[in-house]
Amino acid sequence: MTGARTGPRPAGQEATNDPVPRDAVTVTAAGTVGSARLRAMDEVTRIAVGGDRPYDVLVGRDLFDPPQLLPGAQRLAILFAPPLQGRAEQLAERTRMAGVAPLLIEVPDAEAGKHIDVAAACWERLGAAGFTRTDAVVGVGGGAVTDLAGFVAACWLRGVRWVPVATSLLGMVDAAVGGKTGVNTAAGKNLVGAFHPPAGVICDLATLDTLPPADLAAGMAEVVKCGFIADPVILELVEREPVAAVDPAGPVLRELVERAIQVKAHVVAGDFRESGAREVLNYGHTLAHAIEKVEGYRWRHGHAVAVGLVYAATLARLAGRLDAQTEQRHRAVVGALGLPTSYRSDAWPEVLATMRVDKKARGNVLRFVVLTGLAHPTILEAPSDELLHAAYREIAP
Ligand SMILES: NC(=O)c1ccc[n+]([C@@H]2O[C@H](COP(=O)([O-])OP(=O)(O)OC[C@H]3O[C@@H](n4cnc5c(N)ncnc54)[C@H](O)[C@@H]3O)[C@@H](O)[C@H]2O)c1
Ligand SMILES: O=C(O)C(=O)C[C@@H](O)[C@H](O)[C@H](O)COP(=O)(O)O
Ligand SMILES: [Zn+2]
After folding, report:
1. Which residue range or ranges hold the 3-dehydroquinate synthase C-terminal domain (predicted)?
2. Is there a domain that residue 18 lies in?
């Protein structure tokens, strides 16, 4: 059953071509449990990201116009991996039609592309094409390609404009927003990079139609992360409608995308360089990044984050910070999405060693984002190795 809208659209979030919002309240026998915004398919949502260099995240279907976000550019480098070749070529055509010269640069897919050698090859191409400070870079793809594209842009001439065109769920709700860019090194995940805000972000929900289901599920790990740290309505929507939650053409996934972006936009606007509050976005990532490294980057980031969320909740419960029910909710929500909740017990020594180079560590002191309750993140400083291992044993039976 649907009814009138519950309240105002969150601050900074506007539907650009619909002056009359059609938000709706979904009511169950237990009462109102969340809102399902019923948007027309052609509606575009604009989510503002504040800070010194503000920009907008555009969410809609069949959005595809980065040149508009980059006035004055004469050349546009378009980085893409093979699965997005068709999209990249369409974009090159639009770019040409806008009077801008496209430079298509194919890079290796997924984590193989997040390598300094790949970035160096891109810089060679920019140099050969005579890229100046008014020219710009576009990354078309998942989080791996947009992290690389942002890093290439951050370093070229010490910083040119860039636009991520996010084509994976994880890219839309997380990687493309917030200006964290970078590559992996032998020592670990994302250890070399730069903070470099984009000129705008494009999230074309139509691209999700071709995203493999495993990658869709991986993106949901970052969505529910936002639910646990800041917006419990996300969890209620996923729990109530687990099938609709992963239907790329439906309104529930769109609401989840917009809510997660809103959480991220709010956090990064207040702490762009991660000097404090932004660390909450790293919930679940201390273990996740260690798993990714141990697995030679063959695990999807979102799958590793799923295990990391369960681990962080277990650690918080063992540290006396979190109640068992909320810990169990992590396991249930993550599991219901078909995401992994456990990892190999024999990997502990390598996992622990890798967690020590997590960016949140200070000297020899490990620091974890944990919850003291739903939407109440805090930092657990210097947990003992015994405590860390005890929590690990519970997720690595
Ligand atoms: N910068 C940040 O703030 C931030 C945040 C979260 C994650 N990340 C990074 O993002 C990366 C993970 O991103 P991801 O989950 O998008 O993985 P990914 O970029 O590896 O993409 C997953 C796979 O899906 C393919 N793909 C993407 N869009 C598609 C589409 N529309 N149709 C068909 N195939 C498509 C890709 O080519 C790839 O094979 C990791 O490197 C992670 O560290 C960065
Ligand atoms: O944007 C952030 O800040 C995040 O921590 C978001 C994470 O989901 C993302 O995976 C990020 O790339 C991790 O950052 P890192 O600094 O730990 O490498
Ligand atoms: Zn992440």
Report:
1. 219-361
2. no
Cβ atoms of 149 and 76 within 8 Å: the answer is no
Q: At 272, list the tokens.
A: 């762009």
Q: Is the CB of 180 under 6 A from ligand 1?
A: yes
CA 92 to chain centre: 25
> Does the structure show a pLDDT above 70 at 60?
yes
Exposure class string for 93-112: b at 16+ Cβ within 10 A, else e: ebbeeeebebbbbebbbbbe
> Which pLDDT belongs to residue 38?
54
Q: What is the pLDDT of residue 41?
A: 62
Taking the centre of ligand 3 as the mean of its atom positions, its distance from the CA of residue 288, in whole angstroms, is 8
Q: Which tens digit of pLDDT belongs to each residue from 97-125?
A: 999 999 999 999 999 999 999 999 999 99
Residue 362 sits in which domain range?
A: 272-395
**Catalytic residue list:** 158, 180, 222, 264, 274, 278, 282, 285, 289, 301
Ligand 2 pocket, CB under 6 A: 174, 178, 180, 190, 222, 274, 278, 281-282, 285, 359
Is 343 within a domain? yes
Helix, strand, coil percent content, the chain, rounded in steps of 5: 45, 20, 35
Q: Is the ipTM of this complex over 0.90?
A: yes
Q: 349 C-alpha to center of ligand 3: Å?
A: 23
Residue 189 known to bind ligand: yes
Domain termination residue (choose one: 210, 226, 256)? 210
Between the CA of 289 and the centroid of ligand 3 the distance, in Å, is 9
Overall pTM > 0.95: no
pLDDT digits (tens, 9 = 90+) for 120-163: 999 999 999 999 999 999 999 999 999 999 999 999 999 999 99
